[in-house]
Model the fold of this input.
Amino acid sequence: VDIGLARVYRKLNECAICRDHAEKALVHLREHGNWLGMAEAYREMALSHHQEGSSEKSLEYFDLGIRIIGERSAPFMLGKLYSEMSGAYWFLRRSKEGIECLEKSITFFDRTEHILNSIMAYNNLGINLMQVGDWARAEEMIRRALELADETDHAHTAGILDSLGELYVLRGELDKAKDYLVQAIETARKKKREWYQAQAMRNLARCRLAGGDYSGALKKAIDTIKLCKEIGDKHYANMAGLIAAESALCQGDAGECENYLRTIEENDPSADFFVLGNIQRIRGLAALDEGDDEMAVHHFNRTLTIFEAADDAYHKALAHLLLGANLPPGRHRLAQKHLIIAGDIFRKLGVKHLVEAVAETEEQIKQEKHSAADKAAPKQKPSSAASQLLTVRLAEAVASRELLFRELVSVLQQESEAKKIIIAESGGKGLALRPFISHGYSVPESNELISKFEHSVSTKHEKSFSQTKDLAIFALKSSAAEPAYLLINPRSGAMLNDGTPLAPLLRVVELGMDVIALREKDKSVPVETESRSLASSSLMPGFIHSSTAMRALVDEVYKIRSSDVTVLVTGESGTGKELVARAIHTLSNRKDRVFVPFNCTAVPKELAEGHLFGYRKGAFTGAFTDSPGMIRAADGGTLFLDEVGDLPIDVQPKLLRFLQEGEVQPVGEKKPVKVDVRVIAATNMPLEEKVADGSFREDLYYRLNVIRLRVPPLRERRSEIPPIVNYYINHYSSRFNKRGISFTPQTIDLLMVCDWDGNVRQLCNEV
Done:
């Protein structure tokens, strides 16, 4: 049941509550050695963390689920764990590990009868392979998914056709792409899968853009954005916005292009490298249209860095092509380097028209080079605008720490004489340094160099080490982020080409590290942290909540603090139900108003109605004066109905009317009176049984049981016995003017092993 509740709350985006139920399930499952159930609980916890954006944390729980199964046979569960784990790797841009997970998941799913999961795993594997550039195998996997989906006539067919259509768009085979995408849209509409429909519509717009049908592309992109808004999908709205922006630019409307890009940026696409990279690419194209080649190169450099971080082969090659085609004439060598890389990738992918575009650009550069004067032009200092662009490149690269460091390495490659570069970091306090990003070194070389560097730091021989290895070493430190080290070889290359020192740029990097760290810290604080931090301090004197059970109760109290909803507090006698009610009142918007407790067993049954609802003078024998009653006395505040299960059956209809209508009719009055009262009820008996035997109205039970809080008995929170004892020792010492009284550890031990049938009240009396 708890795992089922965890799943439901996760789907409602209540991830903190999901984990609460998963943890509760684990306690029971551990006791019974139920390894499969434990794996399912870990899976729910992993998915909840991933859903909140903590993909790194989710990997820990996926791994726990896999480890708990071990060598046992559970192909379906292992298939799910590996398949969903690949999604976390995807968001962390660790494509190769994601691909390995999907391959394992397929192995497990193929041993089950769950065809749907195999279909999704094959298609997702194809999408991952498409990104890293293994297009032949990607098509093989996607077609395998299509075979399985066709056999079952499943709705996922639409998504698979969309994947094939996207692959053919990238290859430039636009007629085939269009056929698949039209089929995908028709299938999605037939199966009423609007999410798949939006994906395919976006790719059809992309297909039209690639074919030069700019107005058709813009129209389809706008239709896609409209559909995405209807279904609440920001991701594909952003991706369709990119098509709209580029289509508008191709039609000569640069202003409308920029409007689309700004709309995308308002949706905060910082975690989506595909969108970030294409925003930079389109802005670069817009700069070319305006004749600002320098700004265009700036944007294309940003594009390259982003797609390198995302390990997106196609878009990385496209960025190299754009840089090779648009670098200034004096940088032929760097332009040729970009074009060689672009050509190699496009040939591997089999994109013939782009291979031809690379060849044409290379020929054009050769002609420009031959027509230039034989003598080398003197080095010109870059303009202040160019220097500012380098700063802007680094300042804008704050989507992630990896992206920032990659941008720094890219700037050093292009704007300095650095031949080899390493950025090293520890990954946490007390951990060894490791190469994070390396250029010019093999993996073994960079590992060995960083190991020796760390040793030189610990032995205080850093200076001699840097001289021996011809290294310039910079410490990148910020107030909020883990430090990193930049190593540049040769030392003479540790400046910009115009002789400007690196210090100003590195300061920008350090500020960027701060920005990223603070943003990640904010994201990593789970939803429940606010209430738990509040719960760490006592709500009121005597309210001890140091145990897991009571902290969970206090968390629930904080969650409802801004609501006026009726609360039913249950628990054995002496557990502190009134303290809980007072805590709810203290945290509510009514905290400055009156709190009125009423014990339903404290007055004779025949007088209960008058005490609760009030009466007029002379309404009955003994009614010598008007009485407002407890409910009217609590007007504007909170009424606490203790032991509500003992309320006389003939009074219950009037209480129900009060709860429903917010009005009471005092005994002897002809008209009801409106009141504004928040009700908290408590009982130590199972009201369900009283409903069953007819002594408690069912409709009143449901009206009271809106939010239910259970106060655990003391035997379920024994860890609180010492602080409760300490509180009452201090309380009674102060009350009776005593000093220096304490209990020995042995006395506390004896109190700890008692059953405490009377709970906290009994313990208080014992003290």
About this structure: Confidence is low (pLDDT under 50) at residues 377-383, 524-537.
